[in-house]
Protein backbone atom coordinates (compact mmCIF):
# COMPACT_ATOMS: atom_id res chain seq x y z
CA UNK A 1 0.00 0.00 0.00
CA UNK A 2 1.36 3.44 -0.82
CA UNK A 3 1.97 5.95 1.97
CA UNK A 4 -0.96 8.21 1.09
CA UNK A 5 -0.92 9.83 4.51
CA UNK A 6 2.04 10.95 6.65
CA UNK A 7 1.94 7.98 9.01
CA UNK A 8 5.58 8.31 9.99
CA UNK A 9 4.96 11.93 11.05
CA UNK A 10 1.86 10.97 13.02
CA UNK A 11 3.69 8.10 14.69
CA UNK A 12 6.50 10.45 15.70
CA UNK A 13 4.11 13.13 16.95
CA UNK A 14 1.93 10.71 18.87
CA UNK A 15 5.01 9.33 20.69
CA UNK A 16 5.83 12.86 21.93
CA UNK A 17 4.86 13.06 25.61
CA UNK A 18 3.23 16.49 25.27
CA UNK A 19 1.03 15.30 22.44
CA UNK A 20 0.32 11.99 24.16
CA UNK A 21 -0.80 13.89 27.24
CA UNK A 22 -2.84 16.28 25.12
CA UNK A 23 -4.75 13.38 23.54
CA UNK A 24 -5.27 11.74 26.95
CA UNK A 25 -6.57 15.03 28.39
CA UNK A 26 -9.10 15.40 25.59
CA UNK A 27 -10.27 11.79 26.03
CA UNK A 28 -10.55 12.21 29.81
CA UNK A 29 -12.52 15.43 29.39
CA UNK A 30 -14.99 13.92 26.93
CA UNK A 31 -15.41 10.99 29.29
CA UNK A 32 -16.37 13.36 32.09
CA UNK A 33 -18.72 15.33 29.84
CA UNK A 34 -20.47 12.13 28.75
CA UNK A 35 -20.75 10.87 32.32
CA UNK A 36 -22.65 14.05 33.13
CA UNK A 37 -25.08 13.34 30.30
CA UNK A 38 -25.65 9.82 31.62
CA UNK A 39 -26.43 7.87 28.44
CA UNK A 40 -27.07 4.14 28.58
CA UNK A 41 -25.05 1.59 26.63
CA UNK A 42 -26.83 -1.74 26.12
CA UNK A 43 -23.74 -3.28 24.51
CA UNK A 44 -25.74 -3.91 21.34
CA UNK A 45 -22.55 -3.67 19.29
CA UNK A 46 -24.32 -1.43 16.75
CA UNK A 47 -21.81 1.41 17.13
CA UNK A 48 -18.95 -0.69 15.74
CA UNK A 49 -20.88 -2.70 13.13
CA UNK A 50 -20.79 0.12 10.63
CA UNK A 51 -22.23 -1.24 7.41
CA UNK A 52 -25.05 -3.11 9.13
CA UNK A 53 -26.28 0.02 10.88
CA UNK A 54 -25.44 2.69 8.32
CA UNK A 55 -23.06 4.42 10.70
CA UNK A 56 -19.50 5.37 9.76
CA UNK A 57 -16.76 6.43 12.10
CA UNK A 58 -14.34 9.20 11.10
CA UNK A 59 -11.11 9.73 12.98
CA UNK A 60 -8.04 11.94 12.67
CA UNK A 61 -4.85 10.34 11.39
CA UNK A 62 -3.05 11.44 14.56
CA UNK A 63 -5.55 9.57 16.75
CA UNK A 64 -5.21 6.45 14.62
CA UNK A 65 -1.41 6.56 14.83
CA UNK A 66 -1.65 7.09 18.60
CA UNK A 67 -4.14 4.22 18.96
CA UNK A 68 -1.93 1.84 16.98
CA UNK A 69 1.04 2.79 19.16
CA UNK A 70 -0.88 1.82 22.29
CA UNK A 71 -1.69 -1.66 20.96
CA UNK A 72 0.45 -4.60 22.11
CA UNK A 73 3.40 -5.01 19.72
CA UNK A 74 2.21 -8.48 18.68
CA UNK A 75 -1.26 -7.27 17.66
CA UNK A 76 -2.07 -8.98 14.38
CA UNK A 77 -5.46 -8.02 12.99
CA UNK A 78 -6.83 -7.96 9.51
CA UNK A 79 -8.95 -4.92 8.70
CA UNK A 80 -11.84 -5.73 6.41
CA UNK A 81 -13.30 -2.51 5.01
CA UNK A 82 -16.76 -4.12 4.84
CA UNK A 83 -16.73 -5.76 8.26
CA UNK A 84 -17.25 -4.39 11.79
CA UNK A 85 -14.28 -2.91 13.61
CA UNK A 86 -11.74 -5.73 14.12
CA UNK A 87 -11.40 -4.74 17.77
CA UNK A 88 -15.04 -5.46 18.53
CA UNK A 89 -15.16 -8.85 20.23
CA UNK A 90 -18.46 -10.44 21.30
CA UNK A 91 -20.18 -7.10 20.78
CA UNK A 92 -17.77 -5.20 23.02
CA UNK A 93 -14.77 -2.97 22.41
CA UNK A 94 -11.57 -4.83 23.29
CA UNK A 95 -9.62 -1.53 23.30
CA UNK A 96 -12.03 0.52 25.40
CA UNK A 97 -9.35 2.63 27.15
CA UNK A 98 -7.70 3.80 23.93
CA UNK A 99 -10.70 4.10 21.60
CA UNK A 100 -10.86 7.30 19.54
CA UNK A 101 -13.01 10.35 20.18
CA UNK A 102 -15.75 9.29 17.78
CA UNK A 103 -16.15 5.96 19.60
CA UNK A 104 -16.34 7.69 22.98
CA UNK A 105 -19.13 10.05 22.01
CA UNK A 106 -21.39 7.74 19.98
CA UNK A 107 -24.39 6.12 21.65
CA UNK A 108 -27.25 4.48 19.78
CA UNK A 109 -29.73 5.46 22.52
CA UNK A 110 -32.54 7.51 21.04
CA UNK A 111 -32.69 11.15 22.11
CA UNK A 112 -28.95 11.53 22.65
CA UNK A 113 -28.02 12.62 19.13
CA UNK A 114 -28.22 16.38 19.71
CA UNK A 115 -25.82 16.51 22.60
CA UNK A 116 -23.58 13.95 20.94
CA UNK A 117 -23.15 16.24 17.97
CA UNK A 118 -22.46 19.25 20.19
CA UNK A 119 -19.89 17.41 22.29
CA UNK A 120 -18.29 15.86 19.25
CA UNK A 121 -17.80 19.24 17.59
CA UNK A 122 -16.47 20.77 20.79
CA UNK A 123 -13.87 18.08 21.38
CA UNK A 124 -12.99 17.64 17.72
CA UNK A 125 -12.12 21.34 17.80
CA UNK A 126 -9.75 20.62 20.70
CA UNK A 127 -8.06 17.96 18.58
CA UNK A 128 -7.73 20.46 15.74
CA UNK A 129 -6.17 22.96 18.17
CA UNK A 130 -3.69 20.30 19.31
CA UNK A 131 -2.66 19.82 15.67
CA UNK A 132 -2.22 23.58 15.23
CA UNK A 133 -0.20 24.01 18.43
CA UNK A 134 2.33 21.38 17.37
CA UNK A 135 2.18 21.94 13.61
CA UNK A 136 0.90 18.42 13.00
CA UNK A 137 -0.50 17.54 9.56
CA UNK A 138 -4.26 17.18 9.81
CA UNK A 139 -6.39 14.57 8.04
CA UNK A 140 -9.68 13.01 8.86
CA UNK A 141 -10.64 9.60 7.48
CA UNK A 142 -12.89 6.58 7.79
CA UNK A 143 -11.73 4.45 10.71
CA UNK A 144 -11.17 1.07 9.07
CA UNK A 145 -9.44 2.62 6.08
CA UNK A 146 -7.10 4.65 8.29
CA UNK A 147 -6.52 1.74 10.64
CA UNK A 148 -5.55 -0.48 7.75
CA UNK A 149 -3.03 2.09 6.47
CA UNK A 150 -1.64 2.79 9.94
CA UNK A 151 -1.15 -0.90 10.73
CA UNK A 152 0.54 -1.48 7.40
CA UNK A 153 2.85 1.46 7.97
CA UNK A 154 3.54 0.50 11.57
CA UNK A 155 4.84 -2.88 10.52
CA UNK A 156 6.85 -1.41 7.66
CA UNK A 157 8.24 1.61 9.45
CA UNK A 158 7.67 1.08 13.16
S1 LIG B 1 -12.21 0.95 18.69
FE1 LIG B 1 -13.71 -0.06 20.00
S2 LIG B 1 -15.45 1.37 20.16
FE2 LIG B 1 -14.20 2.02 18.41
S3 LIG B 1 -15.11 1.05 16.61
FE3 LIG B 1 -13.49 -0.36 17.36
S4 LIG B 1 -14.52 -1.78 18.78
FE4 LIG B 1 -15.89 -0.02 18.43
Secondary-structure map with pairings?
Blueprint: H1 7-15, H2 17-37, H3 50-53, E1 58-60, H4 61-70, E2 88-89, E3 92-93, H5 101-105, H6 113-134, E4 140-142, H7 143-157
Helix pairs in contact: 1-4, 2-6, 4-7
Bound molecules: iron/sulfur cluster.
Iron/sulfur cluster binds next to loops.
Which features would summarize this protein structure in a list?
single chain; 158 residues; mainly alpha; two-stranded antiparallel sheet; two-stranded antiparallel ribbon; 4 strands; binds iron/sulfur cluster
Please tell me about this protein's structure:
The chain has one domain. The chain has a two-stranded antiparallel ribbon with strand order 1-4. The protein contains seven helices and four strands; from the N terminus they run αααβαββααβα. Helix content is about 55%, strand content about 5%. The chain is mainly alpha-helical and about 160 residues long. The protein has helices spanning about 5-15, 15-35, 50-55, 60-70, 100-105, 115-135, 145-155; strands at about 60, 90, 90-95, 140. Bound molecules: iron/sulfur cluster (SF4). Iron/sulfur cluster binds near residues 47, 57, 87, 88 and 95.
